Amino acid sequence: MAKRPTVYDVAELAGVSIATVSFAFRQPGRVRESTRQAVLDAARQLGYVPSASARGLAENRTGALGIYSFDLLLESDGASGGRPVREDPGPYFAGSDAAARAFADDADDEDFRVFPLYVDEVQRGFELECARRGRALLIGKGPREEGRGIVDIASRVDGLAVFPGARSAELLERLAQRLPVVAFAMPWGAGDLHHVRVDNAGGVRALTEHLVRVHGRRRVAFVGATEVTDYAERFDGMRAALAELGVPVPDEVLDPTPLSAAEAFPVLRRLLAGPRADLPDALVCASDQHALDVLCLLRDAGVRVPDEVAVTGFDGVVAGRLFAPSLTTCRQPMEAMGRLAVDILTASLDDPAAPPVDVTLPVRPLFRASCGCAG
């Protein structure tokens, strides 16, 4: 194997010092243009490429950013919390929608409700912004109760964005003392973490007001486990809107089933087995994933949506638009969230002494068929 050219070879051929070669690549403003061109010509002639890893070791930087999720991705192999995996997703799509049919054809045996999700779209924005800035990217995921994976990826990047687990706050705070860390969907608090969030309460307030004022719903209930911070804020937003409108306010969540539960929505299933009059006339779901499963459950029970029960979600994932009925929801600016996380990490690396950043982005209500609108 031929010997790889070194910085010394380039310096000798260009007739300059190795320091000048280094400046020509890393700080071109410090050398004359003619000198820089001579260095580049010599490097091209020799086939020399600067070593990013060596440069990173010298600067104590890797040049990479990481993004990590604590198992927020759902699988479609039966480990999806009891949600049905249908080999034929066709009946859940609008038959006249060519895009929906194409999506269904491409899905084969996969459950179209598990991809792409909120995590996937935020991650895409993170990837795009890393690519735009010329940053390498590491992606990781692991169990909510296990910290080894995130510690491993944190050791190999300059900055990290994280979709937190239920009990990951303490670990993330420790990591944030060593490198910049952006947490998605975590409440602001003292410490070194940066935060990127959305207006959960405001978004669900808008959905709830729409259900009451436009569609006349009076028995509104919430579905989803409020142990998740985002879901708790959405439940609070629903309750605040109902209180302002003079509509009965539930003290508790109707069905607090987490997405990882072995049996999906046991409380709602029991209600569906009884008199229809016992059902709420609107279900505000913690996420689109909850809402899509609830729509399937209602349809299987013969409940007409939205005539008997209106359903709303939150996130704005693709499946909600393709579903029949299409899902009323709040669209999070997911790609923008991912890009913003890269901006924050980059700025923090440029100015390590800057204080932590907390950004709350707006959401956009989308009123579609599942609440009774024509969208």
TrEMBL record:
HTH lacI-type domain segment(s): 5-59
Which GO molecular-function terms appear in the entry? DNA-binding transcription factor activity; transcription cis-regulatory region binding
What CDD domains does this protein's entry cite?
HTH_LacI, PBP1_LacI_sugar_binding-like
Q: Spell out the PROSITE patterns in the cross-references.
A: HTH_LACI_2
Give the superkingdom in one word: Bacteria
* Any Pfam family the entry gives: Peripla_BP_3
Q: Which InterPro entries match?
A: HTH_LacI, LacI/GalR-like_sensor, Lambda_DNA-bd_dom_sf, Peripla_BP_I
Q: Which residues form the signal peptide?
A: none
- SUPFAM superfamilies registered for this protein in UniProt: lambda repressor-like DNA-binding domains (SSF47413), Periplasmic binding protein-like I (SSF53822)
Q: Which UniProt keywords apply?
A: DNA-binding, Transcription, Transcription regulation
- What name does UniProt use for this protein? Transcriptional regulator
Instruction: Please tell me the species this chain comes from.
Output: Actinotalea fermentans
